[in-house]
Design a protein that fits this description.
By secondary structure, this protein is of the alpha/beta class. The chain has helices spanning about 5, 30-40, 65-80, 95-110, 135-145, 155-160, 170-185, 235-245, 250-270, 300-310, 315-320, 320-330, 335-360, 365-390, 395-400, 405-420, 425-445, 460-465, 465-485, 490-515; strands at about 15-25, 45-55, 60-65, 85-90, 115-120, 150, 190-195, 205-210, 215-225. A nine-stranded mixed β-sheet has the order 3-2-1-4-5-6-7-8-9, with helices on both faces. Helix 13 runs antiparallel to helix 17 (about 425-445), helix 14 (about 365-390) packs antiparallel against helix 19 (about 465-485) and helix 17 (about 425-445) packs across helix 18 (about 460-465). The relative contact order is 0.09.
């Protein structure tokens, strides 16, 4: 066997393309994009549209790359490499923009499939230098924006795109209207109007507005405002992070939310470079473990990683229509009683799995928490018995209820994970039940439309939204985060844990689905 034969070829990460200018200070442009792509576990490609001489204080000069060379770069890259997503940044002038738009359309025609394109309409540098003239702005509107999947203007860029007066966008409501107009006028699927320059009543908060045209839906993403001068290249970094997330297969809503959080945390962990507006820390997530260290605004990074990589399953679970109907008081009583009986049986197996986790643990502190969790299962089962009694169902009837196939599949899967894996894998398999019930109940409890008075299902919601259960969630979450902090999670082990989390989240969804299906 030759050395070449003995080397196992690794699967390539998804490729992401940046079409942008070069920043000699390394904080913005293609340099920021490539760092962001790597931090997200993707393979970065670049098409350079302009070369700048700049530092953290100013852009001293800029030279565009010829439109023909830009087109050649795009053709060379896209004819050979499976680009999964792309972004644009600084595009210099109208001719370069036209070359990019024409080359992109040609590449898509040859490929025969759509590729997400994130357009960051860069017009002014952080230091205040104008980077796009009037002719270029017109070409951007007419040629490139209609090709975009997502466009990410800040307030001043949104105003320019819509021919509005400077500083006309002066509120979150005005941001919403601008996002709607951009998506409608330029046929863009998603518009993100970035609110970093908007001063809110709460000075410690930044709000970004996301408009999804197909759903006619607005989402306001709030983040902590970080008091830092190190914000050079934040727009480039955000669009690059979103493109990388799309290349990895995340749905648009998750790709955007994760991208915004990545930028926020990169600002939090930034360091001083130069004497002006320094860069963010693109590499804050690159350490010996794939899971980052806890930060002030992301105190539970492993938990967040699991949810972020659930490919939309987590939102589907925590916003399930079973809980929604219970919150509205419209859930069928027979459906709810059936669910209570099945969940009563499920809790027995969940308690067994908790005991198995305690057996596998070598920490008395963890064992103590797990013993508390077993006792919580007993208390939870009593709630089920009490609620069933109100509808004339006795404990004896609950004990005799035949376990549904959805329950059998779910509980045996958890036990199997516990028998085959270590304590962390078992706890991750059990995690969606604990974490998800807590989150789903809090969402319902915090919703002003939830019916409380006269709603027979409100005691069920309030029990999981209450302090006792939320404290149990916090305890269980901390045990898992502590285990991860002591572990070296290689790529394969992390992938297996994510798969386990996603599979049990799916089983939770099916558990509620099966209850609704009895009608």
């Amino acid at each position: 066997m030759t050395t070449k034969d003995s080397i196992q070829e690794q699967q390539a990460p998804p490729a992401v393309l940046t079409i942008a200018g070069s920043d000699s200070s390394g904080g913005a442009g293609i340099q920021a994009d490539l760092k962001t792509f790597m931090a997200h576990g993707t393979y970065g490609l670049s098409v350079i549209t302009a070369i700048t001489a700049q530092n953290t204080q100013a852009v001293h000069s800029a030279s565009r790359v010829s439109p023909n060379m830009v087109a050649q770069q795009m053709s060379a890259v896209m004819s050979d490499i499976d680009v999964r997503a792309a972004k644009t940044g600084m595009l210099a002038d109208a001719e370069v923009i036209e070359a990019v738009a024409t080359s992109w359309q040609s590449a898509l025609e040859i490929r025969g499939t759509a590729i997400p394109l994130v357009v960051d309409p860069v017009m002014v540098s952080t230091s205040g230098t104008q980077l796009l003239d009037a002719d270029a702005l017109t070409t951007l509107r007419e040629k490139l924006l209609p090709l975009a999947t997502i466009v990410t203007p800040n307030l001043r860029e949104a105003e320019a795109l819509l021919n509005m007066a400077p500083y006309a966008i002066d509120s979150v409501n005005a941001m919403r209207q601008a996002a709607l107009q951009i998506s409608t006028q330029f046929n863009v699927e998603v518009t993100i109007v970035k609110g970093g320059h908007l001063q809110l009543a709460d000075p410690g908060t930044v709000v970004d507005v996301v408009y999804e045209r197909a759903l006619d839906n607005f989402t306001q993403v709030s983040s902590a405002r970080i008091d830092s001068v190190n914000t050079h290249g934040t727009g480039c970094t955000l669009s690059a992070a979103i493109a990388a997330n799309l290349a990895k297969g995340l749905v648009i809503a998750d790709a955007v939310r994760n991208g915004i959080r990545y930028v926020n945390e990169a600002i939090q962990t930034s360091y001083k470079v130069g004497r002006g507006a320094g860069p963010v820390n693109h590499a804050y997530a690159l350490c010996t473990m794939p899971i980052v260290r806890p930060t002030l605004y992301n105190p539970h990074p492993f938990t967040q990683y699991l949810k972020d990589n659930s490919k939309g399953l987590w939102q589907q679970y925590t916003q399930h229509s079973f809980v929604g109907q219970a919150a509205a008081g419209t859930l069928s009583t027979s459906v709810f009683v059936h669910y209570l009986k099945q969940d009563y049986a499920y809790l027995k197996h969940y308690a067994r799995a908790t005991a198995l986790a305690a057996f596998k643990s070598d920490s008395l502190g963890e064992v103590s928490v797990l013993v508390d969790a077993m006792q919580a299962c007993v208390r939870e089962s009593k709630l089920h018995v009490e609620m069933c009694a109100k509808w004339g169902v006795s404990r004896a009837e609950m004990e005799q209820e035949q376990e549904s196939w959805s329950s059998v599949a779910y509980t045996r899967y958890i036990i199997d994970r516990g028998m085959a894996g270590d304590v962390l894998e078992l706890l991750v398999a059990m995690y969606p039940c604990l974490l998800g019930y807590g989150e789903a109940a809090r969402i319902a409890a915090d919703d002003s439309k939830t019916l409380r008075q006269g709603n027979p299902f409100w005691p069920w919601i309030s029990a999981y939204a209450g302090d006792d259960f939320q404290a149990a969630v916090a305890q269980g979450r901390q045990v898992i985060e502590d285990l991860v902090s002591r572990d070296i999670l290689g790529p394969q082990r992390l992938k297996r844990l994510v798969t386990t989390f996603c599979e049990t989240t799916t089983l939770e969804i099916k558990f509620w689905d099966s209850a609704l299906e009895i009608n």
